[in-house]
Amino acid sequence: MGKWVEVNNVGRPAAEVAAEILRLRMQVVERRLPLAAYEFHCDIEHVHRFRVGCRRAGAALQAFRPLMAGKAKRLSKWLQRLRRAAGPARDADVLLERLRAEPCSEPGHEYLVTRLARRRADVQQALIDVAEQAATGLLDQSVERCLLSLHKGSSQKGSLQVPDVRFDFFAREALRSAGRKMFKLASLERPTVAQLHQLRIAGKRLRYSMELFHAAFPPMLREVVYPYVESIQSRLGKLNDHATSQALFQRWLADLPSGERVAQLAARIVEEHQSIERIRSDFLNWWTAEHATTLESHLSELIDGSR
Questions:
Q1: How do the domains of the chain map onto residue ranges?
Q2: CATH number corresponding to 167-307
């Protein structure tokens, strides 16, 4: 399964479709976990693809949670553990790639690359540990528990937990929920870096929801709305990369004795901060209130018009 989920009959029961989608999303995670844990030195993209797979599986779990009768908690914790294991490794890969592209003559360059490479080797152990835990069968058990709850359905009435709710109806409500938080954050005036981080996360949830539910909507969702949300993600992702690097360098700075290395690292922290502010300013010049309103209007029309 690629990022786009294809559903031939959107009138099928949502729980039935959800079980198929979640199984496929988790198969991607389980297939990529050993590559991220043991073959990362062959291709740094193994960790990146694994992390994205975890996010897509997590988005599916979150979206379909109302259909699971409270049986999603264990798998949710597993996915959180997997993402946390991959996060520091991926962050180090991104920063190492950026540093290695810079001139070696930059002050403190060799120190940063050497220390970051050492950190990259250390954080890999978390991925190895979680792969070993998953290999015991506990991850599979948590997946099957969720799938069983979807197959059984729920006897609760008056909510989306009715077992025969149609996938297209469920899709509308799920996409509406995903969009609500993003557009609330998108309407803020002069948001802080922290608020932009929350906007990026909310946008990610909306983007992954569109990948899950696009079959229930006209092509405009995939062809117009999705690329716009993806552009938001891309711009804010660059800001997040610099914020992550700045935070790491600040932790290192706190452990260093005074000297030339401290001055070099402090200068680097200032550079990262300047990059953050530049990207933030560029984003706010691009992401206007008019753009936010237009995008929200497009999404609302698609959701309400697909009834």
A1: 1-165, 167-307
A2: 1.40.20.10
